[in-house]
Amino acid sequence: MSEADPKRRRSAPPPPLPLPPQVALVLQGGGALGSFQGGIYEALHEASIEIDWVAGISIGAVNAAIIAGNPPERRLARMKEFWAIVTSALPSFPIPFVHDQMREALNEWSAALVATGGVPGFFSPGPWAACDGDPRHDRGAELLRHDPACRDAERPRRLGSAQRRGGALSVGAVEIESGNFRFFDTRHDRIDHRHIMASGALPPGLPPVEIDGKWYWDGGVVSNTPLSHVLDNQTEDMLIFQVDLFSSKGALPRTMMDVAARAKEIQYSSRTRTISDQLMKARKRREVAQRVLAKLPPELQDDPDVKELTAIAHENAVALVQLIYRANAWEGGSRDYEFSERTRVEHWQAGRDAVARTISNSAVLAKDISGRKTMAFDLNRP
């Protein structure tokens, strides 16, 4: 994007962002909350912010596959189509009056229907059978099973074409027997529907997925954010939009439902926050090392230790923009599997609003992007 015209009046809309060479979208897991990511992608699309690299875990992997697996002109339509399908079983039910307790009760009722009846095109209740300990038999070791439509949702040819269009797709899963976290990446892996299903196979609800003789579970078992993979493989200055579906901050619980909701928020957001903080601190320390190395006299520049330290300290600039979903008072511990149409619409709009608040502060963001600094921002607070 080009810089804003300096002759514009102060009342003009915020200037577009001066985008660095690479823009990444990092999508966290969170089930039904993933429609928040859909709203964010729509708003970024409308702002003409093109995504070069999308990485996701769990529902974030599903959304990432939809983005990477379709040509730019079809991505938004496919995203809307997917979310319309998975929320079609629970229509936009009327709310008799605005009351947190009533709305929470309706949401818990909707989530209970999902738990017993599944989600169209996504997953359905599995057969109740004794488990013989062999995942190949696909029976008894899980409560749900993947819907056949989910298996065919993203064809290999679509996902494989992501690299040819210049973009990249990365999805994370954990290998069950070793416990090792694994990222599948279109730059060196052929990704198909199995990889997307594996990234979202959260135990004990969904069955493990076999890929090349190994069995995988949801990547959120280890880490709910793919940020580390993106930063570890960064090759250019980068702007990263990290979408977090669980907030680290929240009110003191008052009821047992509040306890369940807050515990889940802390469980998933704490690991994301820890990883993000550690990665950004490490990068800033390397920036300090770079400044010190630049002050060394010329006669030390060819010293082998100095050369090695210079290579270690090298970093490309990164601006990390955090877009965090902040739950409403009526959203309880089942918010991540409450797939009603009404809630989907509200989550989608919340994603659009988060991007709008960020863009309204684009001058702050643009200054640090242009200055090639390592910075993290949360500009979408209400």
Question: What can you tell me about this protein's structure?
Answer:
The chain has 382 residues and is α/β, with parallel strands linked by helices. It is built from twelve helices and eleven strands. Strand 5 (168-175) and strand 6 (181-185) form a beta hairpin. Helix 1 (35-46) packs antiparallel against helix 3 and helix 1 (35-46) packs across helix 11 (341-360). The relative contact order is 0.18. The model is unreliable at 1-11, 128-132, 151-158 and 160-166 (pLDDT under 50).
Low-confidence stretches: 1-11, 128-132, 151-158, 160-166
For the biggest sheet, the summary is: 9 strands, mixed
What series of H and E elements makes up the topology? Answer: EHEHHHEEHHEEHEEHEHHEHHE
Indicate the radius of gyration in whole angstroms. 22 Å
Determine the structural class based on helices, strands and strand pairing. alpha/beta
Proportion of residues in helical segments: 40-55%
End-to-end C-alpha gap: 27 Å
Number of helices: 12
Instruction: Write down the overall geometry.
Output: globular
How many strand units? 11
Q: Tell me the fraction of residues in β-strands, as a range.
A: 5-15%
Q: What's the pLDDT, averaged over the residues? A: 79
Summary tags:
382 residues, alpha/beta, nine-stranded mixed beta sheet, two-stranded antiparallel sheet, 12 helices, disordered N terminus
Helix and strand topology:
Elements: E1 22-27, H1 35-46, E2 53-57, H2 59-68, H3 72-86, H4 100-117, E3 123-125, E4 144-146, H5 148-151, H6 156-164, E5 168-175, E6 181-185, H7 193-199, E7 209-211, E8 214-218, H8 227-232, E9 238-244, H9 256-294, H10 304-313, E10 318-324, H11 341-360, H12 362-370, E11 374-377
Parallel strand pairs: 1-2, 1-9, 2-5, 9-10, 10-11
Antiparallel strand pairs: 3-4, 5-6, 5-8, 7-8
